[in-house]
């Protein structure tokens, strides 16, 4: 089952693999959905293991603010949200399992460029969570130009999983 420490271990291993093969090429961390939860200051704030690694940019596709807010919005919890005890049984149990994934806190310590991508018709994680994460990051960054938020209109039908199919994506990322 996913854990924050497991995500961090995976990201550091991926970084080592990419760094060994990239030469002087730029390295970006790109996370999608639950995979956006690994963004942690120690992973992207410079130095080498275990203090951190330096990347050239972070891209978060369909992100959330923290796992508690995400769980309160994902479709599978919709039928349970109105029952007494939902917060205790579902949301608080995530904390008991050491699952916080506090992207809203972690983006405050990033210094590299940050790009947040979200589709307006995302039925899994509402684009409001991506917008809220962007606002949090933007307020923390000294250089506001390093933080960008791109939304994709509903009419494109990209939803939660298909932003990568947008033919304009390479130009937008560049």
UniProtKB/TrEMBL annotation:
GO annotation, biological process: monoacylglycerol catabolic process; phosphatidylserine catabolic process
Origin: domain of life: Eukaryota
Gene3D superfamilies: alpha/beta hydrolase (3.40.50.1820)
InterPro entries: AB_hydrolase_fold (IPR029058)
UniProt signal peptide: none
GO cellular component annotations of the record: endoplasmic reticulum membrane
Protein name listed in UniProt: ABD12 lipase
Gene that encodes the chain: Abhd12_1
